[in-house]
Amino acid sequence: MSDSQDIETATTAIQTSQVAQPDSKTRRYDRQLRLWAATGQSSLESARILVCSGSATSTSVLKNLVLPGVGHFTILDAHVVTPEDAGNNFFLEGLDSVGKSRAEEAVRLLSELNDGVEGQANTANLDDILEKDPSYITSFSLVIAHNLPSSTLDRLATLLWSNTSFPPLIVIRSAGFLAEIFIQFHEHPIIDSHPETPASLRIDKPFPALLDHALKLDIENMDVIDHGNIPYVVILVRALEEWKASHNGSPPKTYEEKSEFKKGLLARKKKADEENFDEAAAQAYRVWTETTVPNEISKLFSDPGVTSLTPSSPAFFHLLKALQQFSSQPPHTLPLSSTLPDMKSDTASYVHLQKLYKARAEEEKLVFKSILKKNGAPVDDAIVDEFVKNAHGLKLLRGEKWGSLDADKNALSACLKGNTKETATHLALSALARIQAANPSVQPTEDDLRTAVLALIGGELPRSSSGEVIGESELEEAIGELARAPTADLPNTAAFLGGLVAQEAIKMITRQYVPVKGVCVVDLIGSWTGVVQP
Amino acid sequence: MAAVNGTPSSGDWPNRYFHVDQILDKPGPRTDPAFSAGPVVKDFLRNQCKILVIGAGGLGCEILANLALTGFKDIHVIDMDTIDISNLNRQFLFRPRDVGKPKANVAAEFVMKRVPGVKVTPYFGKIQDKGEDYYMQFQLVICGLDSVEARRWINATLFQMVDDDNPESTKPLIDGGTEGFRGQARVIIPNMTSCYECSLDMLNKPTAFPICTIANTPRLPEHCIEWASVLEWPRVHGDKKMDTDDPEHIGWLYEVALNRAKNFKIEGVTWSLTQGVVKNIIPAIASTNAIIAASCCNEAFKFATSSAAFLNNYFMMIGTDGVYSYTFEHQRRDDCPVCGGEELAVEIGKEWTVERLIEMLVERQNIQIKKPSLSSANGTKHIYFQAPPQLEAATRPNLEKKVFDLVGDAGDILVTSHSLPFSLNLRVSYV
Ligand SMILES: [Zn+2]
């Protein structure tokens, strides 16, 4: 390239780049679009969230949903701002807010964070709405409730559980340094879970074009530079084929065979510094790790959603059914992923290999689509593409109703044995809620709390096989803390929960990443989180 | 000005601290017996404690708001950055009209307006502008930075300030960091816990592309972008500095990278990827920042009030798959150049040149010194110096010499760097 050409490229670049440059909305959301992309963002922007109470914790949650651009939020709160509220809530303006509607003040100040978000205050009473207008509540896409009186919370949870199409509910309970959150939902399918492990390259089961390419390569007569640039995938496919030819069609199986295979790979080097052969040796496990349908995925095939599929089932189950049929045919794998990791190679060899993978992935996707079509299950093309691309990370969560754990004494006992400090903290919070429901104006004592916990678990703490009582000290620690600060909505605890709950809400709304299952307990004295799950 | 940010009545109203006072009025089962519940602890927190926040960005905004609400009334904040539009998805003290203004000033202003009676003193500049006398005035330092370099600097500076005869000179450092759905908060107490330098090898290794791949065998869109920024920019623009915040510069890189990608039939060069690669962008969201900032402030609150045991000493969480967190005691490294005292042993080849040794110092996970200067015999014999220019020129010929020939068998080398306020003792042995 001459200099004059460069100047020309440079000037045209500036002109065209103004076209390619992202708009101000994309720039504003840049740091989060790198996590959940445009699809996640558009789900977020169409979400409508109802938050019950305008407490410090509630506004902390909302702050973290308004900033990334949730579509709409409503704060439902009939209270006026007290001096106590004005002291611990960043979305109130000190004494100026005292006496005004807590919902209205908080909505006004939260709305300042993002012009693109619609906020609404509702000063009605939640119990009245539950009584007279439950469809108002079910019209939202997600409901979040902080420290509701337990009778109200139970009614809300029962309403939202009564129909599988009703929105999920995130329950938050907190006092002082201790807290817990729980997501109530029926089922939650996730196509893009962002798994850590990449999809198989299928080196052990090479597709015809890959095998053909690996076998036809004239490796012996290659010059030294080309030889040092053969992608490891090709080296492995070729070496495996040659191995099988001399071992009755079997891959290396024993430890000795595997070592021998690896040694053989390194012996193929023409020069000592050929990194591609080092890579091949490091990746050799791919040769004897059989590519099959991962266990977590094949388990989904026996989910009731698949086994009792009807034409009106959600698309996810039609896709799972088609995936089951696809993988029941040879080579008994998931559809090939077109993503090729980087590897030592020259441009031409790498791009050629990438093309082979892309072409094959496209073919297999067509096979998958034809199965769907034969099943009479039309699914939007973009969703099918997403599904096939992320097939190795599919998830289906099935949730439980709020309160089901506390209704099951055996489960509580088992949890106490397995996750002692988490369950002890959960029990103490349940006990506190019960006492406050029975007598809202009285400060509970440690004795009150202990009695309420024992009532929950059926009289006494469980014992280990050696006869030791389980969870006593953990329970005393939690009870003591709650008796100390039974109604404290601490700014730091509120902020922590604000982050935690918003993160879970975003995962629920975008259907990306994996939300927490079970009761997630937070202890900000020990600075830990943990999950209680039967 | 004790009266302004001092006495309980200033800016306070009855029941203002109703929530926090439940904690401060009596101990809990896990509270240290030394805790003096009631007026004493409240007076210390609200009238005497002076706290420094380093960084007014994603974590800093959250930290300032939390500290103000919990009752810290004398807060200082340092930040050298100005506000960019891409900050607005999480840095909630800033509005579109603030773009271009100093973060520290806007954040301080906002918190003072929203939380009456709290004094926030901003400094728009670098932490390195300030000396020991400045840092000595604080009881606590909270750090919410995205720069490894700055954290190493403040960590080493606080360690150097410790005077055994003066307990006040030990300044706890609470450090937070986030990346996407992950984050960590830790408490560093000089000479008691491990330090930031001890954990350098826990950092994710930044992706570095070999120059020969970029120049000759690009395979990924990233390789084309690196080619545009590392090789083409200086070739075409000479000494003109690339400004990764200037959309015209990014646009130029994008076009150049796109053309190269087309020539090599590589797909995937986009504006967003170009920006991500050249600015080394780390995804960031409000929710993760909130969790980590709250953790930091909670430790600061527990530390300042003794109302509950504080974190010993590391909390990390990952929110991608459920809620996973791990709380543990991070261990000191005996050969940590800041807190360990022992020499760091390295094995090198007998044939190694000084240049090769310097490359290793830059790259090794537990060293990572960007521009190291080397000397031997307790610093008296220069091996290679990066600056000043005369010394650099005088020592440059040593770069091609063998380390063994310069320092011999019992090879002790002193490594220093302008960017770090400490030196590293290397004990070299040969294989
Ligand atoms: Zn250290």
Automatic annotation (TrEMBL), chain A:
GO terms for cellular component: cytoplasm. The keyword Metal-binding does not apply. This is NEDD8-activating enzyme E1 regulatory subunit. Regulatory subunit of the dimeric UBA3-ULA1 E1 enzyme. GO terms for molecular function: NEDD8 activating enzyme activity. Pfam families: ThiF. Belongs to the ubiquitin-activating E1 family. ULA1 subfamily. GO terms for biological process: protein neddylation.
UniProtKB/TrEMBL annotation, chain B:
It catalyses: ATP + [NEDD8 protein] + [E1 NEDD8-activating enzyme]-L-cysteine = AMP + diphosphate + [E1 NEDD8-activating enzyme]-S-[NEDD8 protein]-yl-L-cysteine. It is an enzyme of class 6 (ligase). Coiled coil: none annotated. The keyword Plastid does not apply. Its EC number is 6.2.1.64. GO terms for molecular function: ATP binding; NEDD8 activating enzyme activity. Residues 346-431 form the E2 binding domain. One of its GO terms (cellular component) is cytoplasm. GO terms for biological process: protein neddylation. Pathway: Protein modification; protein neddylation. Keywords: ATP-binding, Ligase, Nucleotide-binding, Ubl conjugation pathway. The active site is at C212. Belongs to the ubiquitin-activating E1 family. UBA3 subfamily. Catalytic subunit of the dimeric E1 enzyme, which activates NEDD8. PANTHER family: NEDD8-ACTIVATING ENZYME E1 CATALYTIC SUBUNIT, UBIQUITIN-ACTIVATING ENZYME E1. This is NEDD8-activating enzyme E1 catalytic subunit. It comes from Rickenella mellea.
